[in-house]
Amino acid sequence: MATRTQILVRGIVQGVGFRPYVFSLARRRVLRGRVFNHSSGVVIEVEGEAQAIEQFVSDLAAYPPPLALIESVERSDDLMPVNFDDFQIIESLTAAEKVVPIPADIATCSDCLRELFDPCDRRYRYPFINCTNCGPRFSIINDLPYDRIRTTMHEFVMCDECRAEYDNPLDRRFHAEPIACPVCGPQLRLTDVRGRAPVDDALSYTIRLLEQGRIIAVKGLGGYHLACDALNPEAVEHLRSRKNRVDKPFALMADSVDQIREYCVLSRDEEEVLLSEGRPIVLLEKKPDVKIPPSVAPGMRTLGFMLPYTPLHHLLLEGFRRPLVMTSGNVSDEPICYKDGEARRRLGGIADYFL
User: Fold this and answer.
1) Strands 282-286 and 302-306, how do they pair?
2) Which of 160, 163, 195 is nearest to 179 (CA)?
3) Which CATH number fits domain 104-186: 3.90.870.30, 3.30.300.20, 3.40.50.620, 2.30.42.10?
4) How sure is the predictor about 55, in pLDDT bands with cuts at 50, 70 and 90?
5) CA R_g for the chain
6) Domain-by-domain residue ranges, the chain?
7) What is the pLDDT of residue 45?
8) Which of 119, 179, 253, 255 is 20 to 30 Å apart from 9, CA to CA?
9) Is 202-354 the same fold as 104-186?
């Protein structure tokens, strides 16, 4: 005999592929109903045989998506069936209470990296590639619940191909809110301090400028970084002087663990932390006689390295082929810049160009 259960799942369950996961799980258990984001979490209504619902709830708690963190599962059982035709993801509902935690931005996944460097892929070398399993989350949210219309991506209207992926339950980008491509998504631009764009090929020209020892303000997920050639002592000294950073160490970004090993002693545990989804800066013991200028970390026996965590970082490091200083986009002790006009105004005396 059919019955209906309503479930509220609280925790990190928005922006991590949870609704597509629930959709697939319900289809597998031959259940009807709906799932939607709510200001308190994710709400699920399932209708079908009681045993199938029990299996569904058990799987839901035991095998959530890898980026999800379930804090609680609240159930209302034995409700009167409303005779859903199938199982659907529907529009989110809002409420006055807004307590759902939002995940942090997530480093580019291996699937997106493979597409990024695949000449046959339509997102080949697109600096803003992402999917349900990676990309911006916290940095783009304007309001809850987490839907595209409530993010900074709302102004980018999906093209037909992106819309087809977004609506396809079997696609990796099913309900990936930051979904984008070269046709319909954000574009890369290089400007000078006055906002003028000197070239069309922003990425190649930026790499050339870095090779010349210039300082570039690079816009990332949570704001701007200031980048320069980590092996160029003059460039590092210029950055330190302009940023008014007397002796505090600069963070470094390398394209791979192997590249980091050229400069630092690296344990297995440290490698695992470097490769974790947050891509944190890890303090590592310097090898003797490394080529990194002392001015990167004056008087220190360690270097702070991180790995690329956005497609743009991967493209920069792939072209530059050596480590970059990647330090916060601010004058010392000021907040990090994240708006373009503000960055040109506040960082105009530090950066030569803005990416």
Assistant:
1) antiparallel
2) 163
3) 3.90.870.30
4) very high
5) 23
6) 2-89, 104-186, 202-354
7) 96
8) 179
9) yes
Report the residue count for the chain: 355
pLDDT at 216: 98
Q: How far apart are CA 339 and CA 355, in angstroms?
A: 12
38 near 89, Cβ under 8 Å?
Answer: no
Give residues with Cβ within 8 angstroms of 18, minimum separation 6.
9, 42, 64, 65, 68
Q: How confident is the model at residue 295 (pLDDT cuts 50, 70, 90)?
A: very high
With 60 as the cut, is the pLDDT of residue 220 above it? yes
CB distance 337 to 329 below 8 Å: yes
In eight-state DSSP terms, residue 156 is S
- For every residue of 291-303, DSSP letters joined together read SS-GGGSTT-SEE
Rounded CA gap, 344 and 202, in Å?
17
The pTM score is 0.86
pLDDT of residue 248: 93
Predicted pLDDT at 4: 94
Q: Tokens 């029990």 appear where? A: 54
- The angle that helices 311-320 and 202-211 make with each other, rounded to 10 degrees, is 50
Using CB atoms within 10 A of its CB, is residue 318 exposed (0-12), middle (13-18) or buried (19+)? middle
CA 107 from chain centre, in angstroms, equals 5
Residue for token pair 């709830």: 57
Neighbours of 9 (CB within 10 A): 27
Quick one: which of 115, 164, 108, 153 has its CA closest to 133?
Answer: 108
Report the Cα 200 to chain-centroid distance in Å.
25
Would you say domain 2-89 falls under CATH 3.40.50.620? no
Would strands 69-79 and 2-12 be described as parallel, antiparallel, or unpaired? antiparallel
| CB-CB contact of 7 with 47 (8 Å) | no
Eight-class DSSP state of 12: E
Q: Tell me the C-alpha distance between 232 and 288, whole Å.
A: 18
User: What single-letter amino acid sits at 8?
Assistant: L
User: What residues form DSSP beta bridges with 285?
Assistant: 265, 302
